[in-house]
Amino acid sequence: MPRSGNKRLLRAGAVLLLCSVLLSGCIRTQIFDELGMITVAGYDLLKDGNIRGTVVMPSINPEAEEKVQVMSGISLTSKGIRDKANLQSDKEVLGGQLRVAMYSEELARKGIGSIVDTLYRDPSIGSRVYLSVIEGQTYDLLTYKFKEEGNIGIYLYQLIRHNVEDDKIPSPTLHEFYRSYFSEGIDPYVPFLERKGDEVRIKGVALFHKDKYVGWIPPKEAFHIKLVHDAYRAGTYETSVDPERMGVKPKKKNTTGPDIQMVFDTLSSKAHVDIVSTNPLTYKVDVKVRTRILEMSIPLKIEQPEVLRKMEQALSENMKQDLAKVVAKMQKWEVDPFGFGELYRAKFRGARKLSHDQWHEMYRKSRFDYNIDVEIVRNGVLD
Amino acid sequence: MKINVQPKPTTTIAPYMTGFVVMSTQIRVGILGYQRVVAAESGHDAWISVAIAGLLSHLTIWIICRTLRHYPSADLFGIHRDVYGKIIGNLFSLLYILYFIAMAMVILRGYIEVVQSWIFPGIPIWILGSILLFLAMYTVLGGIRVITGYAIISVFITIWLFFDLYFTLEYARWHYLLPVMEADFKQLLKGALIMAFTSVGYEVLYSIYPYVGDKTRLHRHAQWGAFITNFIYVVLMIISLIFFSEGQLIRTIWPTLQIKTVVYFPFLERFEYLAISLWMLIILPNVMLYMWSASRGCKRMFGWNQKRVLYIIGAVIFIAMQFFVSRHAANYIIDRMSYVSLYMAVIYPYVLLLGVLIKRRWNRREDSSCRDPEISGS
């Protein structure tokens, strides 16, 4: 093709490019100083059925006394709340930096599917946002003047993040919640927070049936969810053992001493769940845990192999009992955070069409066999 | 119109470049969202559908190359003339030109839709459309060598975007893939046919064939390009299936981008924004090759000035894009085009090969002196 044509087009292109450079000034700019970045949003259910949303943005004004700006609005939808927050703010309120979304217990009980959906639908919000349920009203928690936390949004984010990374609680990201919500064979779970004095603490794990909050369990029980569901690590496990089982003679005759308290840290855990029979539906849960001893309340002769064996046995036994208790509780509550339903779907052909209700019908009647194999591989630097 | 064309040696491309051309035309906007439509048909066995579609594309490329081998240096328009005669041949060529133009339009519109949904909800179609079209037309004016050069650069600049899939393994639930082969054969095949729109693009081989320097090595390189594409498609499909639950995947419009929302670096919190911006480099070679093929076809058939035709095609695409404003309308035309492309790029090459074979036999019978039709054609 002749060069002159290139030149003419180049000229036209240069004009076009110039136009686009100039016109780009017409696109709405977003200047950082004029933006309010929401870091945490809380949602409460009011008595009249409306939702009260509370959002927290860090204040970047150095003269401001408070580190954060808190705004709240009442509306039927979460985007309506954002509009109301905009009316209270000197800055444009944006959700791109959202780290934590919180829901009050009452709202969660009613179902948070639609509110979670708006978060997931919004492309400006990443899917690594943490969800949580809190005891009481989120408004009270977010407007409370914490002395030490500074920016409450980042504080809450770090609180959840380090506990997830240290394997204390299962990961509650928006993506994982939404994934479980749209899977028929597993129910979502998020951390359960409360304010205690001047601190916020993770009280446990809130469990859902579909998108409806059912109840919460302490971290000790949540450990078992991680044990069965996550393949990597399950965190620390604290247990108490009858001293006689460990071969410790009581000092006085005919009395039993206090239980031995032991704390173990799981180095790795591997769960294998298999379905051994379908009528009645029976699961065989095989868990292999490698642990190390962190703490014992009385010194035991762990250099002796038989003591170690006994300890392993006692630990397996206790873990098995605890796990059975937790599973029975989950069955009673009709929540399946373990994903037993997904395993059922993965095992049987034609189970794809199983609905959530059908699965829970089966789940209620399911039986479980446990086989927990604990191996103590380290005992610290002391014998 | 001559059936065979002999471009000057200075305008030809090396055969290995066709591998890049095939790869860069196969990967475009469709890769952002194919998982969902395939999974809607064949569920968690969707990766098998994708693999079947991949095999189908290998087979189709083989068929295309077989067809082209019968000619020393012809393109699709020449073959049409040779096989069907003047009137019907031109009709088919015209249909194909329209198809090329429509494909370029759909790709551009699809990309603009992604930008509008993710980054700039308020940006009008015409701004992005005119900038992208200008870039595409400017490169097309440089000729096929510049276009293929651009395609190669775009492959190297963007191929690393797929390595971020490593981060998603943290969220993997491998049992989502079980039980394998739960979907029946019909569902798998249906999924594979829907997948076909995502993996077409190799039909540009028809129009670049005369420009390939060493034609004997064309086939091997084209297959390599397609293999890499299919490998990426299958891996991405498997990752999507273990990353999303099935219900979630079917609701997610662009799973490939949604996957990238969990990628996180301390210096870059939202990886998908970078990916969307870089995706422009991925879609541009497609638009260029389709526009080049369409304008080339007009030149070959009617002897028009290719440059002028290119401007007209650009204007047509620009105007046509304005009719599909909403996501609904854009989706509609992309859906329609996926069916059209199934016929044009996947089924039609088989028909054409049959036509070429019949024509050859016919020639041989008619010509008692057994003249080689390859020579008689040129």
Automatic annotation (TrEMBL), chain A:
Keywords: Germination, Lipoprotein, Membrane, Palmitate, Signal
Presence of the UniProt keyword Transmembrane helix in the record: no
Family affiliation: Belongs to the GerABKC lipoprotein family.
Domain of life per record: Bacteria
GO terms (BP aspect): spore germination
Gene Ontology CC, one term: membrane
InterPro entries, alphabetized: GerAC_N, Spore_GerAC-like, Spore_GerAC-like_C, Spore_GerAC_C_sf
Subcellular location, record wording: Membrane
Spore germination GerAC-like C-terminal domain segment(s): 203-380
Organism whose genome encodes this protein: Brevibacillus borstelensis AK1
Residues of the Spore germination protein N-terminal domain: 31-194
Topology relative to the membrane: Lipid-anchor
Name of the protein: Spore germination protein
